[in-house]
Amino acid sequence: IVMTMLGNLVVIISIAHFKQLHSPTNFLILSMATTDFLLSCVVMPFSMIRSIESCWYFGDLFCKVHSCCDIMLCTTSIFHLCFISVDRYYAVCDPLHYVTKITISLVGVFLLISWSIPIFFAFGLVFSELNIIGAEDFVAATDCTGLCVLIFNKLWGVLASFIAFFLPGTIMVGIYIHIFTVARKHARQIGTGSMMKHIGSESKMKASTKTETILTVISEYLVNQSPPPHSLTWKRRKYGRGKFSEGDERKDVKLGAGISEQSVLWSRFRRNLPSAPWRAAGSLETLSAACIPTWTPSSASSPSSISVSFLLTATVLSVSPYSIPLSSRQAQQINNLSKSLAGAAKRERKAAKTLGIAVGVYLLCWLPFTVDTMIDSLLNFITPPLVFDTFIWLAYFNSACNPIIYVFSYRWFRKALKLLLSREI
């Protein structure tokens, strides 16, 4: 109880105090921490007394209120986990549109759903007593012994398990599998650890009038070999995976047989510039939705050296060696891009790992209680009280793990925690 209370309280104070942490993702974490904090203050202490004393001293009305709060807060916490998984899905699998899709308004809708559905479900179910229809004899037996036990009949034992566990659990597991697959695919395409080291070492370049070896990132674009004059245009083409090499403005990509097509943006760059050898070579493995074209002329001393780079805002496809004359600005741009690639890959792996731990802990904590509740209602309540209590507290333990999983692993939280402990805020 103390661990749940303190851990989530620190999360609440940190996010509420530091304006730098006011982001859509952190608002979800803040709301979830509030839910778990309320659970530790309102529900757990009375559940502890019930478990230790094997008796309920607080009356029938408060028993119902306690049961409602128990169902509501636990389900709300689970819904938050589900929506955080959705947030991580867009952050990893669709980073180009993450900022436009996961907005404060959308997070507000997530929070409204996370709180309103559990409130109506919990209070409506318990006070209408729909959950005990057909189980009146067992309820009367527990009333005689002075217990406060949440009982579900056969129908609501299955429905409650589906609403509070199996539905959000299935969504979370499905999202995690997809995120893990995408993160693993991206890591493989950029060479995992060895390629990232290669990027880090090769991209440390200095400005020079000589030809230097750099790294060209091949993404969803083709670069013209000899650009004719004027204008920048976009064309939407459909093609899939395959190899491509240097080519002129209208050269098509040669694809292997049996490859599914995806829609991407293919660019043609035209501008009145001196003729220069522009090349693009590599393996087109994954297609993204868009790219941002920029052109950077060389210094006045070498007017024939022209570079066109595409700033990748989504998926990195492959990296291959390439030699061109460099200006200081070009070298700095490539160094910055290489660093961003390494950081993006690291963030993807971390997001997949964090979500995997969260899903694993969620299943470990809630699966025994949910399965027991469903089976117990079907087999006329055969679970011993000690076993049932153990499963309840294992489910509560998930609320203590949430701040550790989602927040303690982030650098910003460690800094906030350090400031809290040093009494600087």
Walkthrough of the structure:
- This protein is α+β, with helices and mostly antiparallel strands.
- The protein folds into 2 domains: 2-190 and 344-421, Rhodopsin 7-helix transmembrane proteins (Rhopdopsin 7-helix transmembrane proteins), CATH 1.20.1070.10; 208-323, no CATH class.
- Helices cover 59% and strands 13% of the residues.
- It contains 11 helices and 9 strands.
- The chain has helices at residues 2-17, 24-53, 59-93, 98-101, 104-128, 136-144, 154-189, 192-202, 328-378, 385-406, 411-421, and strands at residues 208-218, 232-239, 242-244, 254-255, 262-269, 282-284, 292-297, 306-311, 318-326.
- Strands 4-3-6 form a 3-stranded antiparallel beta sheet, with no helix packed on it.
- A hairpin with an 8-residue loop joins strand 7 and strand 8.
- Helix 1 (2-17) packs parallel to helix 10 (385-406), helix 2 runs antiparallel to helix 3 and helix 3 (59-93) runs parallel beside helix 7.
